[in-house]
From TrEMBL:
Organism: Actinomycetospora succinea
Residues given in the record as L-glutamine binding sites: D93
Keyword match Membrane: no
Pathway: Amino-acid biosynthesis
Reactions performed catalytically: L-aspartate + L-glutamine + ATP + H2O = L-asparagine + L-glutamate + AMP + diphosphate + H(+)
InterPro entries per record: Asn_synth_AEB (IPR006426), Asn_synthase (IPR001962), Asn_Synthetase (IPR050795), AsnB_N (IPR033738), GATase_2_dom (IPR017932), Ntn_hydrolases_N (IPR029055), Rossmann-like_a/b/a_fold (IPR014729)
EC number: 6.3.5.4
Residues of the active site: C2 (for gatase activity)
Site (Important for beta-aspartyl-AMP intermediate formation): E344
GO term, biological process aspect, one: asparagine biosynthetic process
GO cellular component, as recorded: cytosol
UniProt: ATP binding residues: V269
Name of the protein in question: asparagine synthase (glutamine-hydrolyzing)
Keyword Thylakoid among UniProt keywords: no
Length: 518
């Protein structure tokens, strides 16, 4: 996990260095860069794999091609087996993807499993920039008159470049134009869809209940993913929100740690007596983890609010409410580990949100289509908040529910099994699959938004009301957002004011997404 900056075209090294310095927090362990005639690659490193030898940029055997990468390639050992003829310079997972693309071209990115943003450059002017299919790892770009620039975060870009910044689309690879060739304008190609299955009619099984074999399949595919996501040369922990999803991740991770003779570190946050804090404590006691709690006061949450909005580079109320406690949690966790696993993606795979059980999505086909749509939008919502709050402190967050194999298997299950019918509760399938592995009260605990259960929502709501009263006393005009973006609530207005101070030139319609409700 790291931060990257790349530029192709007419290079301004000072601009590139400024951009790289602004994302130093993403990789405080090391800094590297390389400048070619028509390209510049920069890297801020958080050392997780090949701690001693994985410095980037990584070069090929002839120093004619280079790569910088952000993220993790979980099948890097399998790729190395395929590339048995290649002599690798490092044990870095990034080099595995790099060597595969050098041999087979950018279409080979389809074979790469993980979360990544990669930038490659050759001395002959060729290059490639790619982002993982779901967009777990962030990437933005700006196409200027004589140069195309890329960075891991919005705040990397100079103010004068902000109006041109866009989110780089997940699952795509871009190649720069080469003067005098057939690709002088460059090209953008999709190499993989976010969801590795076709949106197809759900299997019809209205009267068929799932079997123990079905539940075992769910357990096996998730357990395998969690094990692979614990790949690391440094300590790995788990964020315990007190809910079902993170409890399942912790239960499997605790077993993996025990097999290694270790005790799993877990981390929870919530105001004194909050539901999330108490539930996480119960899970930690049950699993016997090395548990750490952050119990913020109202003053702590207030102090973190403005920073949270700037850090996550977003003003959506649901994201901000969860970002504030998450930021405090990450600040504590990084004192103990460099990697944490989270439960992101489970609600999208198992229809965990309340809105999804409305009449609009009451048929299997409508539900399946909405699950796919919600996964495709994660990169500009929950995954953005998850990445920024952790990487602000040089902490890597991993999301085992969003592994390609997990999505392929779980979205192939009959969608009607995920409907709240026949006295089922939401995510009944997932609950039954892991019944007995975590406390009974947690397995059957109802869904609660993280910002609500942690106690942050009540505190932040009072702050918004105080801010609204102050603005009213000053007769301040509510801010407006151009390009058709509408602010939907007083809370969103308050967060937008903070966001605008750092990102005044950025167009939200080109860079951000929003939840259906504010």
């Amino acid at each position: 996990m790291c931060g990257i900056v790349a530029a192709y075209g007419v290079i301004d090294p000072e601009k590139c260095e400024r951009m790289l310095a602004r994302i130093h927090h993403r990789g405080p362990d090391d800094t590297g860069r390389v400048q070619l005639e028509n390209a510049w690659l920069g890297h801020q490193r958080l050392s997780i794999m090949d701690v001693s030898g994985g410095k980037q940029p990584i070069a090929d055997d002839t120093d004619s091609a280079y790569v910088v990468g952000n993220g993790e390639i979980y099948n890097h050992e399998d790729i190395r087996d395929v590339l048995s003829e290649v002599r690798f310079a490092t044990d870095s997972d990034t080099e595995s993807a790099f060597r595969l693309v050098l041999r087979d071209g950018s279409a080979a990115l389809y074979e790469v499993r993980g979360m990544f943003a990669l930038a490659m450059a050759h001395t002959d002017g060729r290059g490639a920039v790619a982002r993982d299919p779901i967009g777990i790892k962030p990437l933005y770009w700006a196409r200027l008159d004589d140069v195309t620039i890329f960075a891991s975060e919005l705040r990397a870009f100079d103010p004068e470049d902000q109006p041109f910044v866009e989110a780089f689309p997940p699952g795509h690879v871009w190649t720069p134009g080469i003067a005098g060739s057939d690709v002088a304008e460059g090209a953008m190609v999709r190499f993989a869809d976010a969801v590795p299955v076709e949106v197809r009619p759900a299997r019809n099984a209205p009267d068929k209940q799932w079997t123990e074999e079905d539940l075992g399949q769910i357990r096996d595919v998730l357990t395998d993913s969690i094990r692979r996501h614990m790949m690391s040369d440094v300590p790995v922990g788990v964020f315990l929100s007190g809910g079902l999803d993170s409890a399942i991740v912790a239960a499997v991770a605790a077993k993996v740690a025990e097999e290694k003779g270790e005790r799993l570190p877990t981390f929870a946050v919530g105001t004194e007596g909050s539901a999330d804090l108490l539930a996480a404590r119960a899970v930690a006691d049950f699993l016997g983890t090395d548990h750490h709690e952050i119990v913020p006061t109202a003053d702590d949450l207030e102090e973190a609010l403005d920073e949270a909005v700037t850090v996550i580079e977003h003003f959506d109320p649901a994201l901000v409410r969860s970002a504030v406690p998450n930021l405090l949690l990450a600040r504590e966790a990084v004192k103990h580990v460099k990697v944490v696993l989270t439960g992101e993606g489970a609600d999208e795979l198992f229809a965990g949100y309340e809105y999804i059980h409305s009449e609009e999505f009451s048929t299997p086909d409508a539900l399946q289509a909405e699950l796919v749509r919600s996964i495709e939008s994660l990169h500009e919502l929950n995954l953005q908040r998850c990445d920024r709050t952790t990487m602000n402190y040089g902490l890597e967050a991993r999301v085992p529910f969003l592994d390609a194999t997990v999505m392929r298997e779980l979205l192939a299950l009959p969608a009607e099994w995920k409907l709240k019918i026949h006295d089922r509760v939401e995510k009944q399938l997932l609950r039954e699959a892991f019944d007995g592995m975590v406390p009974f009260d947690i397995i059957w605990r109802g869904k609660e938004q993280f910002g609500d259960g942690s106690g942050a929502k009540d505190v932040l709501s009072k702050l918004v009301e105080k801010e609204k009263a102050k603005e009213g006393a000053q007769n301040a005009e509510p801010p407006t957002v151009e390009h058709g973006w509408e602010l939907r609530s007083d809370e969103e207005v308050a967060y937008y004011r903070t966001w605008h101070r750092s990102f005044a030139g950025v167009r939200p319609d080109r860079t951000l997404g929003a939840f259906a409700e504010a």
